Automatic annotation (TrEMBL):
Recorded superkingdom: Bacteria
Cofactor note as given: Binds 2 Mg(2+) ion per subunit.
The protein's enzyme class: hydrolase
List of catalytic residues: 7, 68, 141
Keyword DNA-binding recorded: yes
Species, as recorded: Halosaccharopolyspora lacisalsi
An example Gene Ontology biological process: DNA recombination
Family under the similarity heading: Belongs to the RuvC family.
Compartment annotation: Cytoplasm
Reaction(s) catalysed (UniProt annotation): Endonucleolytic cleavage at a junction such as a reciprocal single-stranded crossover between two homologous DNA duplexes (Holliday junction)
InterPro entries assigned: RNaseH-like_sf (IPR012337), RNaseH_sf (IPR036397), X-over_junc_endoDNase_Mg_BS (IPR020563), X-over_junc_endoDNase_RuvC (IPR002176)
Protein name per UniProt: Crossover junction endodeoxyribonuclease RuvC
Record-listed E.C. numbers: 3.1.21.10
Length: 195
């Protein structure tokens, strides 16, 4: 499976592509950052991020896009920019019929380092080891993008099984409710005939 990880940001949007191989091997196919100057207008910055991320999608042809879920922070302006970039990335993926998976920062940290409270340095160190990189990806946004991709790769099979089980349970519940409704109607029509 080929996964594009995106750490959304308006000034620096981290992007990283990984691919799973045999025996749980994971290869890094590319990592980088899409940058926009803070002096540019918002619309121009969003367009630049969209073009940059779309370029990565077109060049690497991922099967799924993993994006960091916007998390409440103190700085509302930062959250707004991150949310806008997340929307841009989801739209670009949808235009290519690519599924988008959102992962919380703590889920990514836990998947990569074993602790949902790991700091950026720990995540960067672990992602460097996991992918067998010669040097740590820089800046941290690039390492975070790779961490998102690896997190998704590792968690997708379990998430798929959970979703499949939930869908099956929902179908069983619908079937059960339909049988109950049929039985109630049958009792009602039978009761009416006996009078």
């Amino acid at each position: 499976m080929r996964v594009l990880g995106v750490d959304p940001g308006l000034t620096r949007c981290g992007v990283g592509v990984i691919e799973s191989g045999r025996a749980r091997e994971i290869a890094c196919l590319g990592v980088g950052v899409v940058r926009t100057p803070s002096t540019d207008e918002l619309a121009d910055r969003l367009m630049a991020v969209a073009e940059g991320v779309e370029g990565w999608m077109d060049a690497h042809r991922p099967e799924v896009v993993a994006v960091e879920r916007v998390f409440s922070q103190q700085n509302v302006r930062t959250v707004m920019g991150t949310a806008q970039v997340s929307g841009i990335v989801a739209l670009a993926a949808a235009r290519r019929d690519l599924p988008v998976a959102f992962h919380t920062p703590s889920a990514v940290k836990a998947a990569i380092s074993g602790s949902g409270r790991a700091d950026k340095r720990q995540v960067t160190t672990m992602i460097t080891k996991i992918l067998g990189l010669e040097s740590p990806p820089k800046p941290a946004d690039a390492a975070d993008a790779l961490a998102l991709a690896v997190c998704h790769l590792w968690r997708a099979p379990m998430s798929d099984r959970i979703a499949e089980a939930e869908a099956k349970a929902a179908q069983l519940a619908r079937n059960h409710r339909a049988r109950l409704a049929d039985a109630a109607r049958e009792r009602g029509s039978t009761g009416g005939q006996q009078r």
